[in-house]
Design goal:
The chain is α/β, with parallel strands linked by helices. It has 4 domains: 1-70, no CATH class; 75-112, no CATH class; 115-247, Rossmann fold (3-Layer(aba) Sandwich); 250-446, Dihydrodipicolinate Reductase, domain 2. The chain is built from 13 helices and 20 strands. The strands form 4 sheets. The chain has a 9-stranded mixed sheet, with helices on one face. A hairpin with a 4-residue loop joins strand 14 and strand 15. Helix 5 (139-152) crosses helix 12 (401-414) and helix 11 (296-312) packs across helix 13 (422-441). The protein starts with a strand and ends with a strand.
């Protein structure tokens, strides 16, 4: 039996061939280890097929300990209070001459720390000013949200998936403190605004709780993963009297603003064709899993439905979706799809979202046709306008992340609604759910 990562220089003939010895490998904890479906989503292996799973191994171990059949005390060589943790690590790193086996770090009863207060000035109490906290501080938030917020308002508290990352982000961007639970932000009187940039399956819950606590909320897309969550958020928002913003950033980009201005007075429906060369994303990525991310249709295609709403000034009323079957274990059946969307003013949009293309092709090409004019957004790096038998290309930069954050903060400061009406956000989110229904039924779906 091999336990752990050890050398495997084994001779075949004397042991395995002549003596027919059997070699067994021990997976840490047992079957289920490193399996996202098992460890994170709680999908157990059938007892009859896998007797000793990771969970059942742990249960059996604890049962043995509780009966006194296995004694752990002889394995404990040292116990340190948490304030002396550095001394414990000196033992582990062989900086002392003392020997050690099992080392326990002990917290005072009922006094486990929940936050780390940094040596930055405390933010003022949120009276007439905007003070922001963050629930979720991954790479996206650090790249696109926090830097812009920091330029305009004080930062109170930050919560991340790991405490060490929360403290790092707090020090890097100047938050007053790092916390380890959402309640420390939701119930905090020193901040009146919360940015939410967590995994998709937590958005609706955090948004609803923050709205109920009277906080202004900016949440990354999507707003919800199903109609039940969407209705919960809707009820919380309607009863809140605060500002709710969502991260549909593309409508705030310079490219989208130019296109909207071109067709603003067209007084005729638009025909739109969006091609998204999204690229491959592994099927076991958290955003692809229904329970945690909802898939790319809910999590990313929503951007383009919102942009169509912005340019047409109309709401989606009917959707129809077709998708390629899953081409391999790496692709889901919604990675490569085509959507047709009809809007309330008669406009029609087509979205081709592809994961099976080549990376050398720019990601997004968005075409708009109406009133004998054509506008093409080329990956948000430029806009080409075709009218009166002439073509004109205008250089643009960015996909609107900075502008959307500034628009949200301005709405909070002025006490006005966010630039995207809530009903538009609702219809965009609902349209993604109806697209999924269309994929399942093979039929058009009305909103």
């Amino acid at each position: 039996m091999v336990v752990g990562a050890v050398g495997m220089h084994l001779e075949r003939e004397p042991y395995f061939y002549k003596k027919e010895l059997e070699l067994k490998m021990s997976c840490s904890y047992g079957p289920g280890r490193y399996d996202v479906q098992y460890e994170e989503l709680g999908r157990d292996y059938p007892y009859a097929y896998v007797r000793w799973t990771e969970q059942r191994n742990m249960e059996a171990f604890l049962q043995i300990v509780s009966k006194g059949a296995l004694k752990l005390q002889p394995l404990i060589s040292h116990t340190f209070p948490i304030d002396e943790a550095k001394e414990a690590y000196k033992l582990v790193s062989d900086e002392t001459n003392d020997t050690s086996l099992g080392i326990i770090l002990q917290y005072p009863p009922g006094e486990k720390p929940k936050e780390v207060v940094l040596a930055t000035p405390a933010p003022p109490v949120a009276t007439g000013k905007v003070v922001a906290s963050f629930i979720g501080a991954g790479s996206f938030a650090q790249s696109y949200l926090i830097p812009t917020v920091k330029q305009h308002v004080p930062l109170a508290a930050v919560l991340s998936g790991r405490g060490i990352n929360a403290e790092h982000v707090a020090r890097k961007f100047g938050f007053h403190r790092a916390v380890s639970e959402a309640g420390a932000i939701i119930n905090d009187d020193t901040a009146n605004t919360v940015f939410i940039a967590t995994q998709h399956n937590t958005h609706a819950q955090y948004v609803s709780e923050c709205l109920q606590a009277g906080k202004h909320v900016f949440v990354e897309k999507p707003l919800a993963l199903n109609e039940e969550e969407l209705q919960t958020v809707t009820t919380a928002y309607e009863n809140s009297g605060v500002v709710l913003g969502i991260g549909f950033n593309r409508r705030f980009s310079a490219a989208a603003q130019k296109v909207q201005a071109v067709f603003n007075d067209a007084n005729t429906p638009l025909l739109m064709n969006f091609r998204i060369n999204a690229g491959l994303l592994a099927a076991d990525h958290w955003s692809q899993i229904e329970e945690t991310g909802g898939g790319r249709l809910i999590g990313e295609v929503c951007h383009f439905i919102d942009l169509m709403q912005f340019v047409t000034g109309a709401e989606p009323v009917k959707v129809y979706a077709e998708a390629l079957p899953g081409l391999s274990e790496k692709q889901t059946n919604a990675d490569n799809l085509a959507l047709n969307i009809r809007f309330s003013n008669g406009s029609v949009g087509a979205i081709v979202y592809a994961a099976n293309g080549d990376k050398s092709l720019p990601k997004e090409r968005l075409e708009f046709f109406a009133a004998e004019k054509v506008a093409v957004i080329n990956d948000f790096n430029s806009v080409t306008l075709y009218q009166e038998n002439k073509a004109k290309t205008i250089k643009t930069t960015g996909k609107g992340h900075k502008q959307e954050v500034e628009a949200f903060l301005q709405a909070v400061q002025q006490g006005t609604p966010f630039a995207i009406p809530f009903n538009s956000v609702y219809k965009t989110t609902l349209a993604t759910f109806k697209c999924i229904d269309s994929l399942a039924t093979g039929l058009p779906q009305w909103l």
